[in-house]
């Protein structure tokens, strides 16, 4: 078995060396054809005053970041997936894109008028979702998918922008304190966090009423990444030559074992860094040292979660690690007075502290979180308040 593994690593290393030039050409082509059109996830308002009918309206915006190119958007459409605790058999819904030339009312038929967005210009539009039924109390989330087409030098290129919108707030509920080695811990339940949430405001709303001086609030790295909109749906990822070949050389349960998740890493740090990290990692593994690839590829290599890694609907997405967690914990402490940490905890008793305010004992905090009081299922408790003994 050791000989087979060694041969596989050698073959993989040769493939990487041959493929780095191909991957570099792919990256250059992608950067060259990228037209720098950004679609925001939007700001959403829910009108649920009628218990039998909801109206959800999102205001989205195309932003042309190019300084030289005008970008044509000939088609925009939207659809929604509803997530509920109950059946959707007796619930109906429809989605309409409301577009119009500036200064004119939107078309009642929802037809998208093909438009050209000038360089450094923006184009706003609305997505309206109507939901009706005898009992809407079980609805939890609307997963909105806005599909649009860019018409340009590469022909027509389809794109998708995803937005997750909660439809209900959780009922007020205080979970019991738990006794852990050296501390009392309180898992804190929240609403389904999305790109529209701010980590400091979430701590103020859910944790501050229960906190006292000396407490520590921990926030999971995945919920923080979600609030920072660091999610990628696999259909928006285009695996290249390098990702398609290297992903087979990771373990089946590894976080980079699919071409899409590995391509997300390549998009973040570049094909050259990933390729050489694999080469030196393979050599080190043959010599009996593991984990070198992750050390050389960077922190994001460990933090990327492939699909099925968290609660619905985010279980359909690839989640990146959070951006600048040290700045987040410092801001939480500055604005709330509560010591804070960003953590990655699982049911295998593994605890990793990504960032923490000064004065926190890392070993003591790791001990109190080792049993994973936040849980790894659908508890929806991204915050844990830790009260050292």
SSE arrangement:
Layout: H1 2-33, E1 37-39, E2 43-50, E3 53-64, E4 71-84, E5 91-98, E6 115-117, E7 122-133, E8 139-152, E9 155-166, E10 178-180, E11 183-188, H2 199-206, E12 216-220, H3 221-227, E13 231-232, H4 241-246, H5 259-269, H6 271-286, H7 292-297, H8 299-303, E14 318-319, H9 325-336, E15 339-345, E16 351-356, H10 362-369, E17 383-388
Parallel strand pairs: 12-15
Antiparallel strand pairs: 1-3, 2-3, 3-7, 4-6, 4-8, 5-7, 8-9, 10-11, 11-17, 12-17, 13-14, 15-16
What this model shows, in words?
The protein is an alpha+beta fold and 389 residues long. The protein folds into 3 domains: 2-33 and 231-319, no CATH class; 38-166, Immunoglobulin-like; 178-229 and 321-388, 60s Ribosomal Protein L30, Chain: A. The chain is 29% helix and 32% strand. It has 10 helices and 17 strands. It has helices at 2-33, 199-206, 221-227, 241-246, 259-269, 271-286, 292-297, 299-303, 325-336, 362-369; strands at residues 37-39, 43-50, 53-64, 71-84, 91-98, 115-117, 122-133, 139-152, 155-166, 178-180, 183-188, 216-220, 231-232, 318-319, 339-345, 351-356, 383-388. The strands form 4 sheets. It has a 6-stranded mixed beta sheet with strand order 10-11-17-12-15-16, with helices on both faces. Strands 1, 2, 3, 5 and 7 form a 5-stranded antiparallel beta sheet that branches. It has a 4-stranded antiparallel beta sheet with strand order 6-4-8-9, with no helix packed on it. β8 (139-152) and β9 form a beta hairpin. α1 (2-33) runs antiparallel to α6 and α2 (199-206) crosses α9. The radius of gyration is 23 Å and the shape is globular. The protein starts with a helix and ends with a strand. The mean pLDDT is 89.
């Amino acid at each position: 078995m050791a000989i087979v593994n060694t041969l596989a690593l050698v073959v993989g290393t040769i493939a990487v060396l041959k493929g780095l030039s191909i991957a570099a050409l792919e990256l250059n082509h992608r950067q060259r054809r990228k037209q720098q059109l950004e679609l925001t996830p939007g700001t959403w308002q829910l009108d649920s005053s009628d218990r039998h009918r909801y109206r959800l309206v999102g205001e989205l915006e195309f932003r042309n970041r190019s300084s030289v190119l005008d970008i044509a958007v000939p088609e925009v459409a939207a659809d929604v997936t509803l997530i509920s605790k109950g059946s959707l058999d007796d619930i109906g819904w429809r989605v309409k894109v409301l577009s119009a030339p500036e200064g004119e009312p939107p078309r009642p038929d929802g037809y998208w008028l093909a438009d050209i967005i000038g360089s450094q210009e923006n184009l706003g539009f609305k997505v309206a979702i109507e939901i009706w039924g005898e009992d809407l109390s079980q609805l939890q989330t609307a997963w909105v998918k806005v599909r649009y087409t860019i018409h340009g030098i590469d022909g027509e290129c389809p794109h998708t922008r995803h937005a997750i919108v909660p439809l209900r707030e959780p009922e007020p509920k205080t979970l019991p304190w738990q006794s852990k080695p050296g501390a009392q811990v309180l898992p804190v339940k929240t609403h389904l966090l999305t790109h529209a949430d701010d980590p400091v405001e979430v701590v103020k709303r859910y944790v501050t009423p229960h906190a006292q001086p000396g407490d520590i609030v921990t926030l999971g790295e995945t919920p923080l990444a979600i609030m920072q909109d660091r999610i990628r749906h696999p259909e928006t990822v285009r695996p290249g030559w390098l990702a398609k070949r290297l992903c087979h050389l990771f373990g089946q349960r590894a976080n980079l074992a699919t071409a899409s998740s590995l391509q997300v890493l390549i998009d973040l740090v570049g094909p050259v860094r990933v390729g050489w990290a694999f080469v030196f990692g393979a050599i080190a593994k043959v010599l009996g040292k593991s984990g070198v690839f992750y050390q050389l590829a960077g922190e994001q290599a460990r933090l990327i979660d492939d699909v099925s890694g968290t609660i619905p609907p985010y279980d359909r997405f690839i989640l990146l690690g959070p951006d600048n967690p040290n700045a987040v914990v410092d801001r939480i402490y500055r604005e709330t007075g509560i010591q804070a940490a960003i953590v990655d905890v699982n049911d295998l008793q593994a605890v990793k502290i990504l960032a923490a305010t000064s004065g926190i004992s890392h070993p003591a905090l790791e001990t109190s979180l080792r049993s994973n009081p936040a849980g790894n299922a659908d508890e929806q408790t991204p915050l844990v308040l830790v009260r050292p003994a």
